[in-house]
Design a protein that fits this description.
It contains five helices and no strands. By secondary structure, it is mainly alpha-helical. The protein has a domain of 98 residues. Bound molecules: fe (ii) ion (FE2). The site of fe (ii) ion has 4 residues, from loops.
């Protein structure tokens, strides 16, 4: 799954790409989920927040036992463009999230629209990435 990620259980920001399609989401009819804070506490931190499911959240749950925290923030929130680029949902974050989001923003130049026109050579790249995988992950991951 790709595209912007966003908090569930609270009002949708108009900073989410294609937010007009939330009209078809059943959560929009649940008043408990459509206030600014919804089911969350103000400033309670993103750890309390259930984000929409996507490749960010999927890989975060694989990597959370192995990677350092700044890397986990990059993994988990890199598609949270409404948050890290548009400043939406700041009221859900705590100061630790705001500090860690400097890492999410530092990762951004390597995300969306950063791809090269020439096709990368997997054979040439594999030793580099294999080395990183071996540095941070055991042979078998648990999740
Ligand atoms: Fe991604």
């Amino acid at each position: 799954m790709v595209g912007d990620t966003f908090p569930t259980g609270c009002a949708y920001s108009d900073k989410i790409v294609f937010h007009e399609f939330f009209a078809a989401n059943p959560d929009i009819k649940n008043p408990a989920y459509q206030t600014q804070l919804g089911v969350y506490e103000k400033g309670g931190g993103l750890e309390q927040v259930d984000m929409s499911w996507g490749h960010d959240e999927f890989f975060y749950h694989i990597a959370k036992e192995y990677l350092p925290e700044p890397a986990l923030y990059m993994v988990r929130y890199h598609s949270f463009y409404p948050g890290h680029r548009e400043g939406a949902y700041d009221y859900l974050m705590n100061d630790h999230d705001r500090e860690m989001f400097q890492w999410v923003r530092a990762f951004n130049p390597y995300d969306l629209y950063s791809k090269s026109a020439s096709k990368p050579d997997p054979k040439e790249l594999k030793p580099y990435y294999q080395g990183l995988i071996e540095k941070y992950f055991p042979r078998q991951v648990a999740f």
